[in-house]
Amino acid sequence: MKVSHFNTFPYGGAAYAARRIHEGLIDSGVDSTFFYWKNERDPLGDDYQQISFEPTQNRGLLRPVLNQLDKIRQRKIKRSYDKHIRPRSSTLEVFSGAKQLMPTQLDWVQVQADVMHLHWLAFMVDYPSFFQSIDDRIPLVWTLHDMNPFTGGCHYSSGCQKFKEGCGICPQLVNPSKQDESTISFNTKLQSLRRKHLTVVAPSEWMLKLARTSPMFAECSRFELIRYGFDLEVLKPLKKSIARRQLGISNDESIVIGFGAEDINQRRKGLHLLLESLRKLSVNKPVIGLVFGTGNLPSDFSELPPIHSVGFVDSIPRKALIYSAMDMFAMPSIEDNSPQTGLEAMACGTPVVAFHTGGVPEYVSPFETGLLAPVGNTDKFAEHLSWLANNNAARMKISHLARDFMLKYHSVEMQSKRYTQLYHQLMDSRHSWRRRSDEGEPLRRSRAA
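^ thats the sequence. predicted structure below, dont judge the formating
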């Protein structure tokens, strides 16, 4: 059995999650290859390949006609992009359409997959040509790292429920209308996925529940919950005093409150709410902030504790060092799937203070692995941070429980086992699925989760 993974980039939050799945499968003996579109860094290894797409061959007497049709198609895509997406504010969440200027047919000599495992495909895949090039009998597994696979383009909907009805009049677009880019992309995705042997996987019950409500997956044969897995032999608690010294934090008596994200200025991640909470702390010890990620901290630090920034970090051993230096990890996301930073912190025995949103409550349990505040309530968030800072014994207890939780539910070995079992089940059911589809029998959704 050969499994081929597809992700737009080899780096970034979704890519790291996808790569852990891929590398865990290799370690468990599965023939796995990771295909990606762009990479400006060093090669990742023989089991990683930059994807190439087959060029469209317009030959013969029809070539001028087909070329003209292709130009018309490209003009429509550009026109919709310029009208609805290009003028959007940079503070908004990313939005990606279903059509690309160039077709993206797969080269099956390169791919040779028994199972195709899809991840974050934004900006790489032209849905019509990509999915048309995949035989309907090939099992597709799609892990949802955000909402984009079942919406008309948004990656997080900010509470909008229009993806349940096909989108349109999108609040995240400029010049929204009933036939805006969200409607076009939604319908394009819907048609592209018809008759595909698709299984949807999500790392949180929250995301899985949303996916079930979208018409995008009306023909999906199966839904599965598989939690993110981590290498807990590397991502583990380290001695706090040593970790702080290596990071240049010399005062071991201080309370260190951490925060991190791939982009700390992404509004959904809530840095602005954390800074407001830090101004409301009531702690009987000195407090230091420890931040990692790209982006810039605000220039106004009035009434804030000193903040130590270590910049972008993608090394797992260094992450373990950073999380171990913290007394607690603040995760003020206002909407999220199963944020990996919180899980990484818990793997290092660091309690998490977060907002009750998305899939976060599925692993942040009050007084067991951390504390939860109502979304946007900075008074309660500050109260939780202060309580943990002022209660050493409770903080140590939660630290141990958080690590135990990760060992029990989030090991990479457990994740690999679940995916391997799923692949084998899909391979076994492939022929019967195709027969039912050919006969026109309605495909039933598995209730397994």
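The first helix runs from residue 13 to 27.
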